Amino acid sequence: MTTADAPARDADPPGGGAHLALLGGRRPLAAQIGVLAFVIVPLLALVLAVPYAWGWGLSWVDVGLAAFWYTVTCLGATVGYHRYFTHRSFKAKRPLRIALAVAGSMAVQGPILHWVADHRRHHAFSDAEGDPHSPWRYGTSPVAVARGFWHAHVGWVLDRDLTNQRRFAKDLLADPALCRVHRQFGLWTAVTLAAPAVMGGLITWSWWGAVTAFVWAGLARVALLHHVTWSVNSVCHMIGDRPFAARDRSANFWPLAVLSMGESWHNLHHADPTSARHGVKPGQIDISARLIWIFEKLGWAYDVRWPAPERIARLTAGAAPAA
Q1: Is 163 exposed, middle or buried (0-12, 13-18, 19+ CB in 10 A)?
Q2: How would you classify the pairing of strands 91-92 and 23-26?
Q3: Which PANTHER family match (predicted)?
Q4: What single string gives the DSSP state of each residue in 214-252?
Q5: Burial class of residue 173, CB neighbours in 10 A (0-12, 13-18, 19+)
């Protein structure tokens, strides 16, 4: 394999500098308490709501609102935070740029600058020292793998150390509008929880409709989205197919394809990080890529980095033989 054909791996991102430290400080105590709350409270709501809804307490309004808000916020994270802001898979006109930043913020996975810096750092050091959430951090023994899974899935979220934004997100720091959205993370978190409740109350014209919509389309939806996203970090670096050449253990895990909006086609993503499409083989559903295609057709997105067949062929040819 020639250097030109080697599997892609992000080194230092746009505007970054390898001379800068990996870490850029620690999360303030108040913010750390907020992180703990939004890891624990939505999950607790989901655990309690499921048996509570057995036979009653869950309406089609709740289901519809939860599906709507899950789709909007998940795509905000996958198309916005991930494929656009982190990897520059396409260019977007300014209204779409701001809308994607807001929609990603409403996924409640952290302010945009933190998210992008963490993910660029992950690609720069994937499954190696410096990766913020590799499941192979502690080794390959059964106990080490169990510890690594916990760390990759949720443990790393609770780490107070912050990735250096000046190294990994300097281009976003230069955009005042994005910095403003970053500072407004608390506002968008409130909106993503309150709006479903307001909608549920208005549709059913009842306080009870507002309460159940808050639980299901607010808290439970956030919990589900959290764990689907975190599963890409954990499960998709442990289990699945590896048909493409990547310098880490990223894998394709088909059961998560729809819920993750195409993010679980993770092996291709790590082999070719800037590709706008992750599911490139027949039958690989990639809802995020389809939305980017729609944006392109509407003229809202341009210079989309669609995967070229010859590039896919080279990455396939360079893949390690199956074990």
Answers
A1: buried
A2: unpaired
A3: ACYL-COA DESATURASE, BLL4393 PROTEIN
A4: IIIIIIIHHHHHHHHHHHHHHGGGTSSB--S--SS---B
A5: middle
Residues making up the chain, counted from first to last: 323
Alpha carbons 63 and 98: distance in angstroms, whole number: 28
| Least confident range of 37-41, 75-79, 152-156, 190-194 | 37-41
C-alpha closest to that of 35 among 135, 205, 146, 154: 154
Average pLDDT score, the chain: 90
Q: Determine the Cα–Cα distance for residues 34 and 31; give it in Å rounded to an integer.
A: 5
Nearest alpha carbon to residue 219 among 187, 188, 197, 186: 197
* CB of 166 closer than 8 Å to CB of 24: yes
Query: Which residue type, as a one-letter code, is found at position 103?
Result: A
**pLDDT per position as a tens digit, 52-94:** 665 566 789 999 999 999 999 999 999 999 999 999 999 999 9
CA angle 129, 178, 86 (to 5 degrees): 35
- Residue where the block lists tokens 């990547």: 246
Do the Cβ atoms of 279 and 289 come closer than 8 Å?
Answer: yes
Burial 84-97 (b: 16+ CB within 10 A, else e): bbbbbbbebeeebb
Question: Quick check: 263 and 288 in contact, CB under 8 A?
Answer: yes
* 8 A C-beta contact, residue 263 and residue 278: yes
